[in-house]
């Protein structure tokens, strides 16, 4: 697996119930985006800096260049490429006015259908991206809000997960989440026109990944990274999948400051049996600030 970052480790917040399964099975729980608490996650589209009429005008000018100036450099021919080359082939035998009329009608139809085409594009991207499993991790283990939301109001725990080159483990492929108030920006008008003509295609599959790694700025406190795994032809199931990891990936365990003594003993027994190499830290409230502190057990 190609290492996608320079991080040594990440952290995973979880409930006690999930943690006992993860520790005993040496597995991490991957989730469908449809289970996420953010209704926008994986279910957004692109921001476009141009309109349908602007596409029509620009596309008309570009194909006009192809027809009357003999452009023939197409990386991936499209239906528009075929139209342009067809008009190019008869340019000397038909009145220019007739050719321009046919060209104008074709480009205006594309301009008219632009909103519907974008809706279909967004629907296809969202359907593809949500039929997946995602592993979400964080750069930090001491965020008070995340302990409240994801670790049973400080009664759960956080696992330190190591990125180990020698193991080629999953977390080497993690990508940082970007935070924004706007949806990802689609390429420029000129780029889109050249995509439609086949002169310079846009890699829409690669571009769609930006959707899976963009969240509203209100979530920035999570400092999230994630690994995305398409399900391809597999059914969605119950929305969760446990995937095995090498035991050495589990580097440390941080116990919540509200964890009961009974649960604490359960966790310590599970750690001793299944990941005895892992360090264990007990969380506690600071006496001088709104911070969490951890002491090794």
UniProtKB/TrEMBL annotation:
Name the Pfam families on file. Answer: DUF2971
What domain of life does the UniProt record list for this protein's source?
Bacteria
Q: Which InterPro entries match?
A: DUF2971 (IPR021352)
What this protein is called in its record is: DUF2971 domain-containing protein
């Amino acid at each position: 697996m190609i290492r996608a970052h320079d991080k040594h480790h990440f952290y995973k917040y979880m409930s006690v119930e999930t943690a006992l399964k993860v520790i005993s099975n040496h597995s991490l729980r991957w989730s469908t985006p449809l289970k996420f608490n953010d209704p926008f996650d994986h279910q957004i589209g692109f921001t476009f800096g141009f309109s349908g009429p602007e596409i029509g005008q620009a596309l008309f000018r570009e194909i006009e260049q192809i027809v009357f100036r003999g452009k023939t450099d197409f990386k991936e021919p499209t239906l528009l490429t075929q139209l342009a080359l067809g008009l190019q082939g008869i340019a000397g035998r038909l009145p220019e006015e007739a050719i321009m009329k046919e060209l104008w009608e074709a480009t205006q139809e594309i301009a008219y259908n632009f909103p519907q085409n974008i809706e279909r594009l967004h629907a296809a991207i969202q359907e593809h991206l949500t039929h997946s499993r995602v592993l979400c991790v964080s750069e930090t283990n001491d965020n008070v809000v995340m302990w409240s939301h994801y670790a049973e109001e400080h009664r759960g725990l956080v696992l330190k997960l190591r990125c180990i080159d020698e193991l080629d483990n999953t977390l080497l492929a993690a990508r940082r989440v970007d935070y924004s108030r706007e949806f990802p920006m689609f390429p420029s008008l000129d780029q889109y026109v050249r995509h439609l003509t086949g002169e310079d295609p846009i890699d829409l599959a690669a571009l769609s990944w930006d959707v899976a790694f963009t969240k509203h700025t209100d979530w920035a406190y999570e400092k999230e990274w994630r690994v995305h795994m398409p399900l391809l032809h597999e059914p969605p199931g119950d929305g969760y999948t446990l995937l095995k990891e090498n035991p050495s990936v589990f580097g440390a365990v941080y116990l919540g400051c509200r964890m009961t003594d009974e649960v604490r003993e359960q966790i310590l027994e599970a750690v001793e049996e299944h990941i005895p190499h892992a360090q264990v830290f007990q969380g506690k409230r600071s006496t001088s600030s709104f911070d969490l502190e951890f002491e090794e057990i």
